[in-house]
Amino acid sequence: MTATKHRIILDVDSAGDDILAILFALGSDFIQLEGVTAVTGAAGPIEQVTNVVLNTATLAGRDDLPVAAGAWRPIVGNSKEDMEAPVHFEKQLKDRFGERLKKFNPPAPTPVRKAMDKHAVDFIIETVRANPGEISIVATGPQTNVAMALDMAPDIARLVKQIVVLGGCFTTPGNITPVSEYNIWADPEAARVVLRSGAPVVLVPLDI
Q1: What pLDDT digit, counting tens, does each position of 181-203 carry?
Q2: DSSP string for residues in the chain
Q3: What domains appear along the chain, each with residue ranges and CATH number?
C-alpha cells in the first residue's frame, strides 16, 4: 500500500528543533518537502538561518531542495536591545558557564550552494497558488514570512491546505518571558495576521 504524502513547506529559523524537522521531513515516507523558507529568529540573522538550512540539506544529500531566504526582521520589531538579546536559555547558559560557551551557535560554514534567487514570501505564494488545497505550511519559527505572504496574497488563505504554527503557551510558562513563547514574542504582529487570516490553522503551543 502506497503511503499518502503530505506536501509541506517548512518555514524555519534554524534552531536545533528546526534542523531536526528538516531531516525528519526529508527522511519521512509520509512527507514530500516542497522547500524550506528561512526567517530571522532564534538562530540569529537571516544569513545564518539560511546557511544552516543549506548545510542541513547538503548533509542529507539533498542539494536539490529549494531553499529561499526570507524576512530579516519582524514586521514591526521590538526594541534594539531586545532584538539583540539572546534567547533566554542561551543567556542562562552563558551566565552559568561563561567563557566555556563561546562556541555556542557559531557562524555556519559557507554552504556549497546558494539559496534560490527568490524571496521566501514569493516562494510560498507561488507554490500554494500552483497547488490549491495541497500545500501545508509548517512554521516552526516566528510567523513573519507567512504573515507577509498572507498580506501580499490574501487568496492563499483559502488555497493552502493548512498552516501549522509552532507557538504560544496557555497554562505552561513561556520560554522567553514568564508568559510568552519565543516564536510569538519575536513577531506578535505576524502571529496576529496568521491566526486571523481565515486559513485552517493548527496551533502547537508549548503546553503539549
Answers
A1: 999 999 999 999 999 999 999 99
A2: -PPPPEEEEEEE---HHHHHHHHHHHH-SSEEEEEEEE-SBTTBSHHHHHHHHHHHHHHTT-TTS-EEE--SS-SS---HHHHHSPPHHHHHHHHHHGGGGTTSSPPPPPPSSPPPSS-HHHHHHHHHHHSTTTEEEEE-S-SHHHHHHHHH-TTHHHHSSEEEEE---SSSPPSSBTTB-HHHHH-HHHHHHHHTS-S-EEEE-TT-
A3: 6-204 (3.90.245.10)
